[in-house]
Design brief:
The structure holds two protein chains of two kinds. By secondary structure, chain A is of the alpha/beta class. Chain A is built from three helices and nine strands; from the N terminus they run E-E-H-E-E-H-E-H-E-E-E-E. In chain A, the strands form three sheets. Chain A has a four-stranded mixed sheet with strand order 6-9-8-7. The relative contact order of chain A is 0.14. Chain B is an all-alpha fold. Chain B starts with 11 loop residues before the first helix and ends in a 6-residue tail after the last helix. The chains are: A alpha/beta, B mainly alpha. Chain A binds chain B through residues 52, 54-58, 85-90, 114, 118, 120-124, 141-145, 148, 152, 166, 168, and chain B through 42, 45-46, 49, 51-57, 59-60, 130-132, 134-136, 138-139, 141-142, 144-146, 148-149, 208, 211-212.
């Protein structure tokens, strides 16, 4: 059974609403573009499945709260928010649109598929392009940045310090 | 008034999950002690990020443990209201941080162990454990790249950093045997395809560690006079002090929340 409100189905409407919920740490990108919203489906009541980026990400509860508010305000108080951890979140789920927005915001998007070098010292040789000037003459300052999902880099060409969204 | 809660964990799966959870929780708390005291801003952020990941993993595992226990406890109850003798973590993770070399050596030994363990547990017959392992495995691999990288840099660095890393490894070595000990709890779960087989974990851990130590020009300590007991609730004196600080708020103000 697909319930509708006017022209669109309820799940379509909820997907559209969630497009407007920003990530609390990187407000330029929505939780849909980040791949945090895994699914919206109908179980007699709407269910929104969300997944944390990192196990300890402090934004997870805030995201759940924002989703709750948006759903309530749009008259979907019966919607359930379900946290799922499997399959585990990966940066591969960040949409192309999301990647573009990150770059425009000054954050270098993940450079490769997360299935890359899983060796002990793997992943260090990736060329990360500076989000400001595009040069790949960049170097890593720190494997950990301003949030759990980012590392800290600097551009050798234009000297811009920037965040890099780590591959996970 | 909430007092201590009593976990008389007899069911093997509950004991196993508590062991995993407590390793993550106790080391997460230890690493958090570096906050405000790191040797450099970047390293402080790294150590505190490790802590954050570990506490996140501990939350998932403690929630599962609470469900298995079925006594109406929450993840917070299990973290903040259990006495030391009811913690099931390895002695390795409760040792004080000492200096940066010690923290890094301990971290590298633990990350190597976690990577192998969570790799195996992704195939566990317990689907909940397999899900948590898949999530934690990615984080552990990133931690290992960092801690192994530092171990090599410090070991193959100056005379001072080399000496400190060697001293740290010599001091910590006797706590590594416990990582691969087995008992009735684990033997039963390994047979059921739920737990990871310590013997399998050990050989991979040994190989990888030898590779790292070679690159770090650090000598693997001889001797096998091993200390153990943490996984059975027999801890060093250090755990009590740590828990006194970690649990203070919930003990003094039961049920306090943000």
């Amino acid at each position: 059974m697909t319930r509708t409100r006017g022209e669109t189905t309820v799940t379509e409407e909820i997907w559209r609403l969630l497009q407007s919920v920003p990530d609390p740490e990187i407000p330029i990108i929505s939780i849909v573009d980040l791949g945090i919203v895994r699914d919206v489906f109908d179980e007699g009541h709407p269910v929104v499945a969300i997944t944390p980026t990192y196990s300890g990400c402090p934004a997870t509860e805030m995201i759940e709260q924002s989703v709750r508010e948006v759903l309530d305000q749009a008259g979907h108080a019966d919607a359930e928010i379900r946290t799922v951890i499997s399959p585990a979140w990966t940066t591969d789920w960040i949409s192309d649109d999301g990647r573009r927005k990150l770059r425009e915001y000054g954050i270098a998007p993940p450079a490769a598929s997360a299935a890359r070098g899983r060796g002990l010292f793997g992943g260090a040789g990736l060329a990360i392009a500076c989000p400001r000037c595009g040069s790949t003459a960049t170097s890593r300052v720190s494997e950990f940045g301003s949030t759990p999902c980012k590392a800290h880099y600097q551009c050798g060409a234009c000297a811009e310090p920037f965040d890099y969204f780590k591959c996970l | 008034m909430t007092g201590s809660i009593d976990i008389r964990a007899a069911e093997p799966r509950l004991v196993y999950v508590l062991r995993l959870a407590d390793n993550a929780l106790v080391l997460g708390q230890r690493l958090g002690e570096w906050c405000g005291k790191g040797p450099a801003l970047e390293e402080e952020m790294a150590l505190v990020n490790f802590a954050l990941d570990l506490v996140g993993q501990a939350r998932m595992l403690l929630s599962y443990a609470a469900e298995l226990e079925g006594a109406g406890h929450s993840e917070d109850d299990l973290a903040f209201l259990r006495d030391g003798m009811d913690f099931r973590n390895l002695l390795l993770v409760e040792l004080p941080n000492r200096d940066f070399a010690f923290t890094i050596v301990r971290q590298c030994l633990f990350d190597l162990y976690q990577c192998g363990l969570y790799e195996e547990l992704q195939r566990s017959g317990d689907s909940r454990l397999a899900e948590i392992a898949a999530k934690a495995s990615k984080e552990s691999r990133y931690h290992l790249q960092h801690s192994a990288g530092w171990l090599v840099r410090l070991g193959d660095g100056t005379a001072e950093s080399h000496q400190r890393v060697q001293a740290a490894l010599d001091r910590i070595w006797r706590y590594t045997g416990e990582l691969f000990e087995t008992d009735d709890v684990e033997t039963a779960l390994v047979a059921e395809g739920i737990a990871a087989d310590p013997a399998v974990l050990r050989s991979e851990w040994d190989n990888q560690l030898d590779r790292i130590l070679r690159e770090a020009t650090i000598t693997r300590p001889a001797g096998d006079g091993m200390a153990s007991g943490g996984r059975h609730g027999r801890h060093t004196e250090h755990l009590g002090y740590m828990l006194a600080e970690m649990q203070f708020l919930q003990r003094a103000y039961p049920g306090a929340s943000w």
